[in-house]
TrEMBL record:
Entry EC number(s): 3.1.2.-
CDD domains, sorted: PaaI_thioesterase
Protein name, UniProt field: PaaI family thioesterase
Organism: Streptomyces xiangluensis
NCBIfam families for the chain: unchar_dom_1 (TIGR00369)
Keywords: Hydrolase
Membrane-spanning parts: none
Domain named Thioesterase: residues: 72-149
InterPro entries xref list: HotDog_dom_sf, PAAI_dom, Thioestr_dom
One Gene Ontology molecular-function label: hydrolase activity
Length: 166
């Protein structure tokens, strides 16, 4: 008998509209407090924003079988999703109202495999450098013993919120 999993999510337009009219840190704090619905990807993969402060964001995930690749460990894309989220939200946490961002790239180093036995993992993102048009962020994926599981750097593009989203 195969395993099954069901989940619900909220209309992503609610979140996108809020992101367009709020300062990054206020948006992320409301997300963290549950005053805004999580993004659909957080329900799909079952991970959450744990901490946020200006220039730093932390996400956590407890690995399950549903995250596995065909070779018996957590798929690299799960690592990358957590690292992209942490690095991107670290940048977002510094943006004033009216500014938006998107990640331009993500360079990931997979240092240790993750399995269901690894336990909860945390992706800690911080801003390394911020300019007018781009920001450089990095993120570390660690286990409960703070062992480094993966590392990523990401460049983000900064731009005014498009009029349609304001
Ligand atoms: C193994 C290596 C790549 C290289 O390690 P090195 O630089 O030589 O360093 P070191 O030897 O110090 O090892 C470090 C730790 O690793 C442990 N360990 C070593 N060998 C094995 C082993 N054979 N099996 C189990 N564990 C092994 C080793 O005991 C140590 O742990 P410890 O300190 O004792 O507790 C390591 O960096 C790694 O596992 N990275 C994560 C890669 C990863 O998870 N990628 C994403 C998933 S792939 C994917 O999804 C793509 C895909 C998609 C679709 C379909 C198919 C595929």
């Amino acid at each position: 008998m195969g395993r099954t999993r069901t989940y619900n999510w909220e209309d992503p337009a609610i979140l996108a509209e809020a992101a367009g009219r709020m300062a990054g840190i206020d948006f992320l704090r409301e997300l963290h407090a549950g005053q805004l619905p999580g993004p659909p990807i957080s329900y799909t993969l079952d991970f959450a924003l744990d901490e946020v402060e200006p220039g730093r964001a932390v996400f956590s995930l407890t690995p399950g079988e549903e995250h596995y690749n065909p070779i018996g460990s957590v798929h690299g894309g799960i690592f990358a999703t957590l690292l992209d989220s942490a690095a991107g939200c670290a940048v977002q946490s510094t943006l004033p109202q009216g500014m938006a961002y998107t990640s331009l790239d993500l360079t990931v180093k997979f240092l240790r495999r993750i399995t269901v036995d690894t336990g909860t993992v945390r992706a800690i993102g911080t801003v390394v450098s911020q300019g007018r048009q781009t920001a450089l962020a990095q993120a570390q994926l660690v286990d409960a013993k703070d062992r480094l599981l993966a590392h990523a750097t990401s460049s983000c593009m900064l731009f005014p919120v498009p009029p349609a989203r304001q």
